[in-house]
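Worked example 2:
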Amino acid sequence: MNYVSTRGGMKAQPFSDILLEGLAPDGGLAMPESYPQVSADMLESWRALSYPELAAKVLGLFVTDIPADELSALTARAYAPGVFDSEQVVPVKELEPGFSLLGLSQGPTLAFKDMAMQFLGQVFEYVLTQRNSTLNIVGATSGDTGSAAEYALRGKRGVSVFMLSPFGRMSAFQRAQMYSLQDENIHNLSVKGVFDDCQDIVKALAGDLQFKSQWHLGAVNSINWARISAQVVYYFWGWLRSTTEAGQKVSFAVPSGNFGNILSGHIARQMGLPIHQLVLATNENNVLEEFFRTGIYRPRGSDQTYATSSPSMDISRASNFERFVFDLLDRDGSKVKALWEQLAKEGQFDLSEHLPRFKEEFGFVAGASSHQDRLDTIAQVNQQYQTLIDPHTADAVKVAQNFREAGIPMLVLETALPAKFSETIEEAIGQPAPVPEHLRGLAALPQKVVVMDADVAQVRRYIEEHAPR
């Protein structure tokens, strides 16, 4: 299995090379040359596997340059007992027959990002050790990616992390999770701006090929293909736990900001997993919902990106969206390149001629949710099902209700534990969310963070001063 760029300008490379690269040299994103196909018989043979065993099988289709026994050891460590709170790793939490939550918040930072990041921590260390090399991770986070990456990579050999986050835009719990880490290889940079400003700085540094090469820059946000492929696993897991025989359809509802999580569902569907619909849920920052409704992709500026009560989705420019457009345009890298050049000049592009294909060919439907919708949904789910959900999951539950169909299970992908967004929970149900016992003292811990302007040169200087030589 080799990988090419969405913009057509990268020679095919194996998994371990694109793992360490982040953005492709032409500014595009790595994609497999073709999607591996999973037969009904293969799916049935996977029913009895544990989560780490299933991860080794699914990831083995994408990772062909690491021996199968070594890959199995990596997934066994990533999803080992004690790393995740649930024996199953990803429990299916039934709200009512045919309507369940896929429990992705059992990891060390209580968010779905742990699912891929724990594997990423293992595979980074493995490949860097094999190559006797080092890597400086430069990433942007709107809330959960940062802490998941830092907890997965803290103390890892050969890896340093420089994580940019938007100043004042994350919950107090999210900030405490990240900034309380004192490890020497972890650097938190709080940028005066919004998430898109942070992401733009990361892309600018990654696009400076000389700087990238000199300082061995890599990525952990969902532009990294290893993240996307590791997330594909839990779609297979959810389907296997919600069906009893081959060919049964399941729908998935996914809160979406940067498009990585639902992209993994798209890939699982392209591989042959019987997914009926992929229900994309946004908050008030509904650029993606607008695209799937109209065919027009029109990101907004920093001053038009709302600060909402589901802050991890306060994103206007979705990094992974380019990967879907690559598939939509029959994998024509020159067309994708031209579209992103048009986007840079005109601020939007129009693919409305493909509108019928979104649902008919790819299964995508979409909806948006508001602050009041979140509050109402959190309260309703708590009262009706005695289950507390976080605001992002509430966005997906709200939107999912419009697309439920008899006889087709709907799985809502859980984003995080409610404890990470306690102010909103208290507004919804009148009391704060319970905090897991081992994290109750988090807010009182000393925090290590550097505040700076949304300026590429400042971030570049900081990396030069603090990256290992």
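Residues 113-131 form the longest helix (19 residues). The chain is about 40% helix and 15% strand.
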